[in-house]
Structure formats: C-alpha cells, structure tokens
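Input/output pair, single chain:
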Amino acid sequence: MLNLFSTLADPIEKYLTQSVDLIAPSSIHALLAAHQKSPLLLITTSTRASDLLTAELKSLVEPESVVNFPAWETLPHERLSPKADTVTERFKALNQLNSNDIKFVVCSIRALMQPIIANPLEDSQVKIKVSNHFLMNDLIQKLITFGFTRSDLVERRGDFAVRGGILDVFPADKEHPIRIDFFGDEIEDISYFAIADQRSLDKVTEEITIYPCRELLIDAHLKKKALKLGQDFPQISELTEKIIQGINFEGMESLAAGLVDEFKNIVDFLPDKSQIWIIDEPRVRTRSADLVTTNDEFLSAAWSNLAWAEDKELDAPIELSKQLGKGGFYELEKVRKIADDYGYQIRNLNLYASNPDEKAIEFLEDIDSYANKYDAAISDIKNWHKSGFKVIFTAPAVGTLKRFSELLNTSDLPNETIQTRGIADKSNLITLLKSDLQYGFISEKYKLVVITDKDISGQRSLDKDLARMPSRRKKAIDPLQLKTGDYVVHEQHGVGRYSELINRTISGISREYLVIEYASSKRGQPADRLFVPTDTLEQVTKYVGGEAPALHRIGGADWQSSKRKARKAVKQIAAELIRLYAARMSAPGFAFSQDTPWQKELEESFAFVETIDQQATIDEVKRDMEKPNPMDRIVCGDVGYGKTEIAVRAAFKAVQDGKQVAILVPTTLLVQQHFNTFSNRYSGFPVRLAALSRFNTQVRARRLLLVLNPAQLM
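Output:
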C-alpha cells in the first residue's frame, strides 16, 4: 500500500532527515514510521494504542516485518501470573527479533519498562513436524519446563494430555489445540482438534513451533536458586519448595528477582543501527512515572500478605523487599541509558511542539470528521477529484468498500477497488482499498487525500476492540455492601472471609484495599490476609453457596482441588446432556439451503469487522440450520458483542427458504430498536418487516396479525 503514496516519499524522507524530534498528527504516525530506513522501535502510551499502530503499519508495509511486543497484564510484584497467550506472544516476538526478520517493533511504555527474564532464546522453542524423530517423554518434559499444565483433557491454552502414544497440546498462539500421534520415536501424524468434542479437524503438514507459557522456566539452576532463597527467607519457604519440586503456581513470577541471574530490556534485542521513537512523549513520561510508583506500592502490599506479624501495617522484611525489588519496572531514564550504550538514536514524535526549535510537518494534515454526513463527504470528494487530487478511500471491511463504491457510482464518480498489495495506481480513478488505517489525511501541496470509513462515520474508537469490552463489570462486587464475616471468592486464591475495607499509605500513595482472611498457612499462626486493591475487584465475587464453607489457604492446593471436583461434576452433567441431545438428534427437522449470493451480499455489507468469536458463532449457527435436525442453540454475550448481527444473518437465511421469522424481545423499546436495525440491514432486499408492540394502535395490530396468516411478512 505504501507505493500509493509515492509522491510523499521524498518529502517525508527529507523531513525525517532534517528533524530530530518530529511533530505530526496521529493519522500519519504510521506513514512516517513506514518511510524510516533504519529498524525502528515505536513506544506508545498504552496497549490499545500499540495494537492500533501495529495494524496500521501492517497495512502499509509487509506484515511479516512488523511485530507487536505485548506487556504483562500483571505488575512484576503482583502475585498473579501473566496470561499464557501474552507470554507466548512475547517469546515469539523476541525470537523473530533474534532472527533479524523484523524491522518495526511496536510496544507500549509498560512493555518497554517490563523486565524480561534472560532465558536463552534458542532453548525457548520446540519445532515439530510430521516424520520428525522425537522421544515422546522428551517432548513431555519440555512442555512441563515451558509451563504447560498436564491434565486429563485439553480444555484451555497451556494444557497438555497424554493417552498412550497420542499427545494433545494447546499452544497459546493457536486457535485450536493439536494432536500429535507418535509411532515409536517418530511423529506419525499431527492434526488440529476441537475442544468441544475432542474430534480431530484438519491435518497439519507445516512445521509447528511451540513457545513457553511462562517466562520463569523451572530448570535445575532455578531450583538451586529457589533452595537458597527459601533458606535466606523462611517466610516464603512454602513457595520456594513448590519451585524446587518443579510445580508451577499462580504468581510465581513475583519471585523472579530472587531466582534469576539477569533481566533484559526489549532494547537489548533490537537490531544494529535501530532508532527509538517515543510517541506522545509527555504522556509516556507521565505514564512511566505512574507505573513505577504503583509497582513500588505492590512490592510492599503483595508480600505483607504472608502474615509475618499480627500488625497489619507491617511491611515485608526489608531485605526481601530489596531482593525482589530488583525485578521491578525499569525507569525511563534507565532505558534511555541502555539505548545510549548501544548507540541507538531516541526521537520524540509528538502532536504539538513544546519549543520553537521543533518543526512540525507542513505538507500533511488531518481530515475533519464528517459525523456521518455522507452527502458532505461525497461533495468534497467530487471537488478534490475535479481539482486533480488522488483520492483514496480505505476501510477494514470489504462490505463497506462495496457500499461506498455504490455511493460513488450514484454520484458519477469513477472508482476502482484494489485487491492486491503492492500495486502502484497511476489512473485518475478514486481508489478503494482494504486496510486498517484509522484516520485519513490530506496534502494540498502534493494533491493527495486519504479518507477512512471512520472519518465519514465520525467514529473515534475501534469497533472490534469495543466489541470485546463489556459495558460494565458484572462480576465486580460493591465493597460497601459487604459485611464483616461475609464469604467471598477470589479468582486465584479461592474462598476467604471479608474482614474490612482499609486505606493504606505506601511510598506516599494512599489506596483503598479490601482485606480478605484466609486459613493460616502454618498451624497456630494467625489467619493469612490478602489485600486486594479496589481497582482489581473484578477478581472477587460473593460466595453464593448454601452453607458456610471452609476457608482456603493462599497458595494451597485446596482451591485447585475444589475446581477439579467442579470440573468432574460438570463432566458428569455433560454426559447426561449428551444422552439427551442424542435423543433430540433423532427427531426430524427442516434443513435450510446453503448460502445464496444474496446471503453473501448481506454479510459483506456489514460495516464492521467481525470478532473471531462472532464469526465462529455465525458459521456454527448457519451449519446448524443446514442440518436436517432441530436446532438447539443459545448465543450469549454482553452488550455490544454482536449478537444482533448473528440474528440478522440467521433470519435472512430462513426467509430465503420461504419461512417466516418471529423475533421476540423483552421490552417495547427493544422492539423499535431491533426493527430499525433489521430494516437498515435488509434495505435493498425484497423482505417485508413489521414491528408489533404496545406502540401500535389496536387497529394496526389487528391488521398485522391478519397479514401474518397468509405469510405476507417475514
């Protein structure tokens, strides 16, 4: 796509050469980075900003040359482990950097400051392929070292199971788990399989690389370090004993500073002659200071839970805090020094100049939002095209491009949709292109304008990100509604008893904590106390059992055992359901036809990008409809997760086979909202719709019911 902006190449490169610190609108940050000749590390203010910038860069340059280095979801001293898929993505990114395949690295300030345990990269991956010779026991041992959990059945990322000569494993970066079939010491077959029914799916012919699920890898050297740490600090001997036994446990990474010899920074992995760009440097600097302060607070708060004294205000032993504090966030100045030692140039890329010496880019500027006013957008496009501008419209969905092409055709504006990357368009046609560029820009000097679907709609956020975010935290409890003695359940530590809500001041920062009491880790000692910051209450729910439960121990096996028993009970219920569904499957039903051209046209006109789960659900619903058995499915999801679009497509599929569809909703307001949604989606198709609610007059309602009888409505 970058070659579409060939007229801007020379002036952009000249600007990058003449200016040290860069001043430019956010819409062209990716464009500037794409024209940088040397390898580049881009630092953003947040994980979301990092994801957006990565997507934009992959639209402009070869996607294989761009990598997003994620940060842990947890703090270094928080007694919670990062997610397995995050750890895997970090290992994958570091290995790609080590092989010199990457030119652009994007990460948030949090990922930049996150210490990286200096694991040997050559030992942090296992490559498997059909016909490879590999002892099964060696692979099992490697998976255990990588932090995979052995289980009876593979159900989640990071699990593996062994059944005779078959090894099931779920790498954290794969959509489906894989099944490895051994014949002696040779891999005879590899295939994906489904979690739901454990049945094999597609064969795997290419080489698969498995990365660790944890950054703290337990080997012989780490066990020796754990033994010494436990001897030096008996208060944590129960935790170090687990490591000595080779047991991975939640929050073990918080001990890393006392167990590993060296930490690294992402800067240590950059190629020679790299540059580092800090995007929105004032906010990055503020954010880095906040992270260091919060981390210091957690260093003290997390380890006060070990109850080495009855005084709840007593901090962790000074020597232990000092030892573990070495694994905290890097300060920004420390990162700058590391970069200076390598000779890497650090540049700021800001929205506004902070001093007269900083020169802003003058030949590119933002486009004003049209706030969903399509007529105004078409009018401006017509004027630009008439004035000789090269006009490019881009959107992430093919359906959006087709609809916009129709709008341009209606206004007699010549246009073409470019499907292939790398094509340099020399025509005078308006170019439509699929990409993840967020917002457009214009160059009056070089007669080029780029417009995105978000510029026209006025939308200022990423749809697919919003779709993952619930409107509220439904699990979060209200601490003001809790009473002393109430039983609560922590996601990681199990059942505890609410004690109080307190305010503690650590390193000059005041913060509220929910205090939860757990069973004592040692007989005769006072109850262990867990201090949960009020901004992480989504991990705590109220106990809803019918009787007073026994309290679990922090770090003990009771909670894990309870969850295993619950899983076993669920399996028994599942077996009963299987028998029930087998009976249902024998009942006759109606098999709907496969997708028609109209169905595909409707789906391509969807203005947004389907989430992975949404697309999978849509496919499963349509597959169910095409089977000759009654469909029995419920689709669950929070507000904004895309359930309505699933119903839109399923209803349309039914209508095309001559069926009527009734859509039942719980409130009158939803009747009108869904009627508007379905009407908008079905516009242009010969489908009749009507809404029936108390908003209708009695006469209107009777007419609708009469029309329903001869099937004149959808």
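The longest helix spans residues 558-585. The chain has five domains: 2-120+223-230+252-350, 126-210, 367-460, 479-555, 597-708.
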